[in-house]
Amino acid sequence: MTAAIALAAGLVSCATPHASREAGPPGPALQAWIYPGSTGEPACGAPAEYRDGRLREGVLKPEYWKVNPEGTLTLHTTGEDAPCNGFSEANAADVKAHSAQQYTTVSAMDRDSVAALVGNPDRRATAIRSMTDLAHRIGFTGVDVDFEDFWNWSEKDEAHYETFLSELSHSLHAAGLKLQVDAPAELHDGDSPFRFAKVMAAGVDQLTVMTYGRVFATPAGEHCWAIAPEGWVREAVAYAQSQVPDADRLVIGLPSYGFAAPDPCDTKKIQDSVPVSELRKRPGWSDDAEVVRRRRDPGSGEIRWSERGVLYDAMDGAAMDARLTLLGRLGVRHVSVWALGGNPWFSRTAAE
């Protein structure tokens, strides 16, 4: 679907309920992450969103675990640590009641934390046991590994990471559970130390390629690039499909958020993963159809505008619909949205 066609769908409100697909030719099956948050943050709205049935036949992935700098795990539990979306028996049961499959996400956002865990056999064993035991006890489908900062990994880090995945997959499979792993969007072999083929060979059941965040590759002095330019996404999907030819083992990430950044761009000062409900409060936001038409970026479908030296960029429902249609045409069978909580969702027509 082109950006022009996507405009016909109009803006889709974050609060609009949508049912899961029940008729028509099947499009990509849907998944979504749930992020822990503090009281009053948009992330706290995630349960109200998934309770509308949008993922009744899909997958929910609450982030219950994080990796500490010393390589140990912390469980986000409901309370002071994570008032919203943290782990509790009640929260886990609610997630299960509104989805067909569920994964507990474990997150590490910097290379040092990743290396501290995967490079130590004792810490690996402890973490694997904890994650397997929890997923099995609460009846989830498995574990989703979201370790990032890939471009700062060494070859040794990657080798240790592959060992960790092999050990984790063995533990999960022995318990009747599955392993999902999040991967960088790459365009060719050696784009980062992450090795698709080796990771899949470690026993991964599904690989989720995070085709968003292109803004962080913006050269100094330019306007910040879009979150997920269509041409780049096409290339990343093509490479991922060459590495994971089984379409049911490949998941493509789709953004539903926005960002704010200095204009010209300074990638170190980007406010990333800003919920669209928050961007609606920023200077210059408009729901006027003609204004939205002018601001829609033809290369990504995203809404972009500058105000007082700040560039704003937001996905909306029309952009998400267009991207979902594109991915379906590219042969993608599984799509995972980052993230629920204050962000738009697909229209009923696009999700069918």
Task: Give a description of the structure.
It comes from Streptomyces morookaense. This is GH18 domain-containing protein. Pfam families: Glyco_hydro_18. Helix 2 links the parallel strand 1 and strand 2. The protein is an alpha/beta fold. The model is unreliable at 1-24 (pLDDT under 50). The protein has one domain: Glycosidases (TIM Barrel, Alpha-Beta Barrel). The protein has helices at 3-7, 46-54, 89-97, 111-118, 121-138, 155-174, 196-201, 230-243, 276-279, 289-295, 317-329; strands at residues 29-34, 59-67, 73-75, 101-108, 142-147, 178-184, 206-210, 250-255, 258-262, 271-274, 303-307, 310-314, 334-338. The strands form two sheets. Strands 1-2-4-5-6-7-8-13 form an eight-stranded parallel beta barrel, surrounded by five helices. Helix 4 (111-118) packs across helix 6. The radius of gyration is 19 Å and the shape is globular.
Helix count? 11
Structural class based on helices, strands and sheet pairing: alpha/beta
Instruction: Count the domains.
Output: 1
Mean pLDDT: 94
Write out the CATH superfamily name: Glycosidases
Any low-confidence stretches, pLDDT <50, length ≥5?
1-24
Radius of gyration: 19 Å
> Order of helices and strands, N to C?
HEHEEHEHHEHEHEHEEEHHEEHE
Q: Into which percentage range does the β-strand content fall?
A: 15-25%
Cα distance spanning the termini: 15 Å
CATH-defined topology = TIM Barrel
CATH architecture: Alpha-Beta Barrel
How does the major sheet shape up?
A: 8 strands, parallel, barrel
Question: What sort of overall outline do the alpha carbons produce when their principal axes are compared?
Answer: globular
* Broad CATH class: Alpha Beta
Query: What share of the residues lie within helices?
Result: 25-40%
The total beta strand count reads 13
With strands numbered from the N-terminus, the spatial order across the biggest sheet is: 1-2-4-5-6-7-8-13
InterPro entries: GH, Glyco_hydro18_cat
Domain GH18: 30-352
Pfam families: Glyco_hydro_18
Protein name: GH18 domain-containing protein
